[in-house]
Each structure stands twice: as C-alpha cells, then as structure tokens.
Amino acid sequence: MGVCIVDDSVISRDVVKMAMGMAGLEISIEAEDGVDALEKIKSSKGKSELYILDINMPRMDGLTLLKELRKLDAEAPVIMLTTETDKSKMAQAKTDGATGWVVKPFDTEKLLKIVNMVLKR
Fold it and tell me: Considering the entire predicted model, what is its pTM?
C-alpha cells in the first residue's frame, strides 16, 4: 500500500511526495494525469491507502478520475488538491466520493493534518 499522487505539475507532485515522506508514507503510484493514473492503478497489484488528485489536468481531469477510481476502490480516502475554489466543483467532488479538499498553494502542515485526519492516525 502507499499513496497515489496524480498531478500534471512536477513541482506539485514533488512537494506532495516530500510531505508524504515527512508523514512516513510511501508513494505507490505517481502519475501526470488521469489517463496515466488510471492505467497505473489498474495494473498495480494492490490498492493505495490514499489518493491525492489534482482537478485540472490534461487528457482526464481529477473529477473524472475520481468517478473511475471509485469503481475500483470505494473505500480509500481521496484528497482533491487544486487551485479550484468553485463551490460547485467542491460539492461535485464530495458527491463523487472525495474525502477532503486542499487548495493550492498549500501549507505542508495543513496537508499533513488532513492526511492524518482521513487516514485516522
């Protein structure tokens, strides 16, 4: 198990990886967009314990990926990490199974607090 990070920004992925390392969590999957992530998730041998998804990405956005992910894993927490502050997108993400929402740019401590909360640690 581990954390699946999906973001088209290499810098954002690196910051999230650093934060997950601080929390003692390993990265199981790293992907640059929803299509890449879905392929890697389907071919992986196990489920991730946490998914962190950007919303605005090319090829497949995070909201679409969230819907597809929930067909494969209905239980694992999903944190949406995005520049979006649109309340309707937040509501849609929650309806589709998102567990948390973090707005970029984010404070590492805030992200870790939310990660610990959704993982119940």
Answer: 0.93
